[in-house]
């Protein structure tokens, strides 16, 4: 709080005030405005002979008309910007500080009763009480904190935080697919917040879904990492049909927006496993899932991937994401057409991507496997808890994936397990996989209370049974995850992309004698090779390092 001294007269007739270190003397100069009110009337004007500061004597301290206990003293804070606690306008350097709360108030607000236009929050003007006066739960957000300014309509007993007066009315947040709107009261019931998961008191204002049962604390809903800042009141809702990814063109026949030919539905019972078939959307094998196959070419999508909505919300980004099937990025000196790097799992992928619309430029990009992980998701490794987003931002540095050690913001917490975290890469390791070592399907195991040693049948190195690994129940094989999936599990075999002057094809490494990498000359060990005309590469790194890459 600001120490308020007394204004008094110096021996030579100057004014000494806490506002300025030197005495101020009466002046008739009208060319420089008063730093308090910006006016140029000469009556009562003083100036400092050393600093060229002009100010009206009456502008040094203002007693607010609505409350004589509010003394507002002009203060000089060189280099600082202030936001008025009443009208939120910004001032530079000179501001009035309230003797009671220490809060900044602009000159215009200091001179009139502290009232504001209630906007859509209430039907009468609201009286503003600077902080510290008293505390009541806010009718709009339910929070009772003495630290925030409160506004009151006394006849109505309506109390609202200054910062809650202009809460948005209808918004979309990244934790829910429907619009939510602010309601003065949720009503009775056991409400839990869709963002912080804590209880929401139904007697106060909150956001609730217009379509289903979903509630969010007013303050949780407008966090910058939850809400994109767009008010949707009065904005007509998008026609949901616009976001449908395909049109039905016949019985079991669709036209998907990502492909030029019609696709035919193949049901689960009709699927014959073909290990070369990978979904063009998620890049995972089709296995026994229903899928849509192209009537003309090798394009294929899981039924679930064909149904992915063109628009999505994701907890890692506040703006809406749009589904794309092709990617193009200009990167430094080479262009990259095809695989992209998923922002949350950091793995390269040649399938579909959800991309944040960042003013025409591609922003945040996430693959469709990672999009399928949501708050409340139950991962089979932890069947008794749910993946949730940490509400405590301060611990996000400490959150490290319990399996791989990856840290950062995109790591999930597990309910009831304060010691466990899971990253997107680990959460999306396929539960089923194939490898030419074993003719059967391999399944992901999360831990085994085993005595004795396990060995990976591919690399012949030890497998830790307490960690995740693949196994075949028929053959009792144990295999490292990395050995089964290879270095780039989400680059589809058969896909092509351009890197510099190379047009590369991703091929299975099924050669009788393993080809040599053109860059590092070693025999290629990975489960795929990258082929460009008659040369082979072992990895994307070796393609990038190749001297002939540049055009
Ligand atoms: Zn003035
Ligand atoms: Zn509030
Ligand atoms: Zn009222
Ligand atoms: Zn909340
Ligand atoms: Zn798929
Ligand atoms: Zn990903
Ligand atoms: Zn991990
Ligand atoms: Zn291995």
UniProtKB/TrEMBL annotation:
Start and end residues of each Zinc finger PHD-type domain: 33-88, 278-346, 455-521
Any one GO MF term held by the record is: zinc ion binding
What would be one Pfam family of this protein? Answer: C1-like_CT
Q: Which UniProt keywords apply?
A: Metal-binding, Repeat, Zinc, Zinc-finger
State the PANTHER family in the record: CHP-RICH ZINC FINGER PROTEIN-LIKE-RELATED, CYSTEINE/HISTIDINE-RICH C1 DOMAIN FAMILY PROTEIN
What is the designated name of this protein?
A: CHP-rich zinc finger protein-like
Organism field: Arabidopsis thaliana (Mouse-ear cress)
UniProt lists the gene as: MMG4.5
